[in-house]
Amino acid sequence: MAQEDVFKKLVSHCKEYGFVFPSSEIYDGLGAVYDYGQMGVELKNNIKQYWWQSMVLLHENIVGIDSAIFMHPTIWKASGHVDAFNDPLIDNRDSKKRYRADVLIEDQIAKYDEKINKEVAKAAKKYGEAFNEAEFRSTNARVLEHQAKRDALHERYAQAMNAGPDLNELRQIILDEEIVCPISGTKNWTEVRQFNLMFTTEMGSTADGAMKVYLRPETAQGIFVNYLNVQKTGRMKIPFGIAQIGKAFRNEIVARQFIFRMREFEQMEMQFFVKPGTELEWFKKWKETRLKWHKALGFGDDHYRYHDHEKLAHYANAATDIEFLMPFGFKEVEGIHSRTNFDLSQHEKFSGKSIKYFDPEINESYTPYVIETSIGVDRMFLSIMSAAYCEETLENGETRVVLKLPAALAPVKLAVMPLVKKDGLPEKAREIMNDLKFHFHCQYDEKDSIGKRYRRQDAIGTPYCITIDHQTLEDNCVTLRNRDTMKQERVAISELNNIIADKVSITSLLKTLQ
After folding, report:
1. Tens of pLDDT along 266-317?
2. Where are the alpha helices (DSSP H) in 27-100?
3. Where in the chain is the domain with CATH 3.30.40.230?
4. pLDDT given for residue 216 in this prediction
5. Run of H or E residues at 194
6. 3-class SS of residue 420
């Protein structure tokens, strides 16, 4: 099945089973804004809990805060967002549609990659086990031709982006590559211009006295302006970190790919404050730590890769992304950046207040350097759903859709099912449910055949189902079914909590990180 078709099925599945709904749908929706349904909010909360506990429980020198969405507007002047938080946009005159120029070019680079991969896949199918991929890539004429075009475009694009970006050169690349508008199919492009992504509003009781404020485009600045408050009240010693989960807002003109790029989204960020001169060593450590966190979910190492930035932000001296293999290619889910002391120095300059750290070990004050780890909750949600979504053909020829979610993140951990709605089985099932619901999220289901009930639970990713039958009333045992293997076994009711809790708890996931 084509990856595009898989993605369409995933989006449909998210709505059908209560994971993600288009926002304001009864009013025909609001572009690039989504609501999380009853299953989605549970999965999202579990993702946040996994991240939060991996930060503040596993690291004695990391604490959390929750800063306000509204902040003094000068903060965004100091951070550079007022002057430099822009996207290069281009319009197609025929379709009247607006696009990000950099995304159009990146998609063109991806097309060259796709052509190369198709040639490789075709040859692999033709030659079977005798196929030598490395040799084929280095000798096949068509592959070499595509690779040369791809590398030349990539080099030209990187130079244009590093030059400010050079808006005229970006437009020229689009023209030279003969990139067409996906809607009109024409190359009738306008000039490229910059567009600021921050939402603005007014704060104040009267129109004349109102102050222009911004919806924060990132959560990091709330950490920076509070870092000294946290350090002093928490008696923190460098190195230490501050973690935060919160909403951020960007007026994305080209929002697309479902919840991958939205105008209202949620971030999980940790800023780690270090002594100047040690930042690159800590940058390397946090790269490794964060990749290990992702891989612990068990989707396979081949789903992840680093992408080092060729163009560094003006405040950074090192930056990399952790990319995940989405249905539409490898895409960023987390960024790790060495932000130097730019943010703290800027806030000291614009506020006129000293926020230096006094280091008692060397008896000196200095402005700490910062390593940032920043992950989008929504992108993480999408990556997990993409990897978990699976269609299987069973031995009897039936097809089942199953979400193979990591058990610790699954919205519902256990479904409790009486085999029939009589003979005291519902009462026994309720008794078991009322005991287990204090330990993890359970769902009770007595409607339809047991097979249909299993399929419903597979579709929302429930790792375990228990069936209460007539024998249960005699031996106090139930049938425990595993979602992934569909294997069933008889277990004592008294053992259920121990068996299931160990496998579905966040703690079991955190232990793999040690």
Report:
1. 999 999 999 999 999 999 999 999 999 999 999 999 899 998 887 777 778 8
2. 38-56, 73-79, 81-84
3. 86-193
4. 94
5. strand 193-196
6. coil
CATH class of 401-511: alpha beta
Residues 6+ apart with CB under 8 A from 309: 316, 319, 320, 321
Mapped onto helix, strand or coil, the DSSP state of residue 2 is: coil
d(CA 230, CA 227): 5
Q: Three-state SS string across 100-166, please?
A: EHHHHHHHHHHHHHHHHHHHHHHHHHHHHHHCCHHHHHHHCHHHHHHHHHHHHHHHHHHHHHHCCCC
Dihedral class, residue 185 (left if φ above 0, else alpha if ψ from -120 to 50, else beta): left
Nearest in space to 20 (alpha carbons), one of 455, 400, 385:
385
Q: DSSP 3-state assignment of 497?
A: helix
The residues near 281 (Cβ < 8 Å, ≥ 6 apart) are none
Residues comprising the binding site for substrate? Answer: 100, 218, 265-269, 372-376
**178 phi and psi angles, rounded to 5 deg:** 55, 45
Domain 86-193 has CATH 3.30.40.230: yes
> Where do you find CATH 3.40.50.800 in the chain?
401-511
Residues placed in the known binding site for ATP: 250-252, 260-265, 332-333, 376-379
Fold annotation for 1-68+215-393: BirA Bifunctional Protein; domain 2 (3.30.930)
In this prediction, residues 178-196 reach a mean pLDDT of 91
Residue written as tokens 């610790």? 408
User: Which residue in this structure is represented by tokens 């299953």?
Assistant: 39
For the chain, the straight-line distance linking the first and the last C-alpha, in angstroms and rounded, comes to 38
CATH 3.30.930.10 intervals, the chain: 1-68+215-393
Which residues are annotated binding-site positions?
Answer: 100, 218, 250-252, 260-269, 332-333, 372-379
Cβ 223 vs Cβ 212: under 8 Å: no
